[in-house]
Specification:
InterPro entries: PHAF1 (IPR005373), PHAF1/BROMI (IPR039156). Belongs to the PHAF1 family. This protein is α+β, with helices and mostly antiparallel strands and 510 residues long. The protein has eight helices and 29 strands. About 16% of the residues have low confidence.
Length: 510
């Protein structure tokens, strides 16, 4: 006997299934599903280990008979599939999708899905003819897909009974058709119309299912993309609100709170072990950590908050709701915006990175102010790459680096090999020689897998002076020995955390 979820799940054609809303982020859905382990005891996540940002991500809930498909670049829910009807108690406008039969006092579910008659007469009513998919092998059954706006059912149909001239209602009502084996919920007027653009069309609903149907004034507008312009300047594209500019060293914590609401968490402590590399850069005559004359590589602290969001490791607890003035903040802390996909480092003003040499942005970075006012000095954009150590701590941030005004720039989906080639090219004239260029491009290895708990601080292995492998970024078994190692690559104003498959897991703009 197949176990069946007792809670009723409402079908909303074109919108979602229960709390599963089309357009919701992978972070939003996975976080909510994991918070109900008794309801969702089994979670399977499938993705491409070689190209996780371009190929779809599939979340399966086998105990609930559900499969959810997300696009790779934006990680938003595009398709909800019911693959095992007896495992989920579906309802549509007060009607059971699957009728249960009774044996004595025991209620048992049908081993199959709803019949065509039930779907057609009781649930959704008349429909235009669907499409027939012949069997791919020697099976005697093909598949007839019956589409309604935003929802479709698949019925096995005897191939020998199929004819283009048949009345599909009579055919599916006959013994030649079996009950439905699956149901799909999608955004569009019909399955044939939406199939080709399923993962590319603009989602109608926001990334957080909790804000669907609520007033825009009751929640902070969601971020669509960050535009990195150089010289410490970022433009933020939002879903409905006007674009917002962040100027590192000028934008204040109160500016962030006014636009994005209080942070989800505040983390004070940050890892200072990397400061040894800043000291080496300042004191050494032969190692120049910056291709920009007169400016040392200001390597950002990379203890990123996302890896240390639990306040037990913090020097003190800081309540996000107690931010009436900057005096309540420590001199250095992270604002964690998990649901917006970024962190902001708050400290006293510093000089931001220089403009890109190819950019028409002529404005030079401003000198740090002597004012005691705290400002945003770093923005950390999280890629939420499946398979990475900090996966699902933040929702995915998308960004574009605008090197000049003539092209579309480098994006969060660009392989790091492409990013590195472009950035090395624009900064090439600032290296004294090839030896200095090679020294600059040696990565620092970052391990997030060691420690007494998953929330432990990062560990740095090696340094800028030590060589690192430049070969393929994925091993034959797609494992790295369990250490979760990534590599850090720096350019003026930018620090990239890169996985072995070349995907950028995190970008720090400083």
């Amino acid at each position: 006997m197949t176990a069946r979820t007792s809670a009723q799940v409402q079908i909303f054609p074109g919108k979602g299934l229960g709390f599963l809303t089309l357009g919701a982020s992978l972070h939003n859905i996975l976080t909510r599903v994991k918070s109900y382990p008794k309801t969702y005891p089994s979670i399977d996540l499938s993705y491409s280990s070689t190209d996780p940002l371009c190929n779809p991500v599939v979340l399966q809930l086998p105990s609930n008979g559900l499969r959810l498909r997300f696009d790779g670049p934006d990680q938003r829910l595009r398709l909800i599939e019911v693959l095992d009807f007896p495992r989920v108690n579906l309802m549509y406008k007060g009607q059971d999708v699957l009728k249960a039969g009774k044996t004595g006092e025991t209620t048992i579910s049908s081993p199959q899905g709803p019949s065509f008659r039930h779907v057609y007469n009781r649930l959704f009513g008349p429909s235009y003819p669907g499409e027939y998919v012949p069997p791919a092998d020697n099976s005697p059954y093909g598949t007839y897909v019956l589409s309604y706006p935003g929802v479709a059912f698949s019925f096995p149909l005897q191939h020998s009974a199929w004819s283009d001239q048949c009345d599909f209602v009579a055919l599916l009502s006959s013994s030649a058709a079996l009950p439905a084996t699956s149901m799909a919920v999608f955004q569009g007027s019909s399955w044939p119309e939406v199939r080709a653009k399923l993962f590319t069309q603009q989602p109608q609903y926001p990334r957080s299912s909790a804000v669907v149907g609520k007033s825009r004034d009751s929640f902070a507008d969601e971020i669509e993309q960050f535009h990195i312009l150089g010289a410490g300047k970022l433009e933020i594209v939002r879903r409905t609100s006007p674009q917002l500019r962040i100027n590192l060293g000028e934008t204040t914590p109160q500016d962030l709170i006014a636009e994005f609401g209080p942070p989800d968490a505040i983390y004070r402590k940050h890892d200072r072990r990397i400061s040894i590399h800043r000291a080496a850069a300042a004191g050494g005559d032969n190692l120049h950590l910056s291709p920009s004359p007169g400016r040392g590589m200001d390597i950002p602290d990379t203890d990123h908050s996302s890896s240390n969001s639990v306040t037990d490791d913090s020097d003190e607890d800081i309540s996000p709701g107690n931010l009436s003035d900057s005096a309540s903040l420590p001199a250095e802390c992270f604002f964690n915006y998990f649901h917006h996909g970024f962190d902001a480092f708050i400290s006293y003003p510093t000089t931001p990175g220089p403009p890109f040499p190819t950019s028409e942005l002529s404005e030079q970075p401003h000198s740090p102010s002597s004012s005691p006012q705290l400002t945003v000095t770093k923005i950390i954009l999280h890629g939420n790459v499946p398979g990475s150590y900090p996966f699902n701590r933040h929702r995915r941030s998308r960004w574009t680096i605008h090197l000049d005004d003539s092209d579309d720039g480098l994006t969060s989906e660009s392989p790091y090999e492409e990013i590195s080639k472009r950035l090395r090219g624009i900064w090439k004239e600032y290296y004294n020689n090839q030896a200095e260029e090679r020294a600059m491009q040696r990565p620092m290895v970052l391990n997030r897998g060691w420690g007494d708990s998953p929330e432990s601080s990062v560990e740095f292995l090696g340094g800028w002076e030590e060589p690192a492998s430049k070969g393929p970024r994925s091993s034959s078994d797609n494992h790295d020995g369990g250490l979760g190692n990534t590599e850090l690559f720096g350019f003026p104003g930018l620090l990239f955390e890169v996985l072995k498959n070349g995907a950028v897991s995190c970008l720090t703009v400083y």
